[in-house]
Amino acid sequence: MDHSLINPNQMRAHGVDVWDNPYDKERTFGIETEKVTIPFDCEGSIVFFNTRAPTDSEISNCPIPIKEIGLHIEGEPSPYEKAAQGPSVKMPFGKYAGKEIIQIPAHYREWMLDNFKWTPFNQKIKDEILRLKNIGI
């Protein structure tokens, strides 16, 4: 896509400070937050800012998982962290006895799913393993 349209009034309605008057000397011509400023440019009456696709290095070093970009609100837990906040289910026996299921390595939890005999007595453990697997933990 050569370009995309962003309505500044919609951005304002969602709490984003947008200053799109190039003659206002009191404010930055662009989008401004506590941590980021995106400067605008203009050609005639068209106000814009340049964008680009992130590099592979930027994607791999991004502090927010790509699937969460746009979902993460600064200062709040990410959707991944919220999903991880499930019930506290502890392993009652074996190598990881006393540890919460989320603390057990994923490969071992997968082994448990394939090798344990699941009964009503250990169903909570299986349910927690499956919950974690479904959210990618």
In a nutshell, what does this entry contain?
By secondary structure, this protein is of the alpha+beta class.
Verbal overview:
The chain is built from five helices and five strands. The chain is α+β, with helices and mostly antiparallel strands. It folds into three domains: 8-48, no CATH class; 54-78, no CATH class; 86-134, no CATH class. Strands 1-2-3 form a three-stranded antiparallel β-sheet. Strands 4-5 form a two-stranded antiparallel sheet. It is elongated. The mean pLDDT is 82.
Pattern of helices and strands? HEEEEEHHHH
Number of strands: 5
Distance between the termini: 34 Å
Can you tell me the number of structural domains? 3
Count of alpha/pi helices: 5
The parts where pLDDT drops under 50 for at least 5 residues are: none
Helix fraction, binned, reads 25-40%
Note the beta-strand portion.
5-15%
From the helix content, strand content and strand pairing, which structural class follows?
alpha+beta
**What integer is the average pLDDT?**
82
- Overall 3D geometry? elongated
Largest sheet: 3 strands, antiparallel
Keywords for this entry:
3 domains; alpha+beta; 137 residues; three-stranded antiparallel beta sheet; two-stranded antiparallel sheet
How is the topology of this model organized?
Elements: H1 8-13, E1 17-19, E2 30-32, E3 37-39, E4 41-43, E5 46-48, H2 56-60, H3 79-84, H4 106-115, H5 123-134
Antiparallel strand pairs: 1-2, 2-3, 4-5
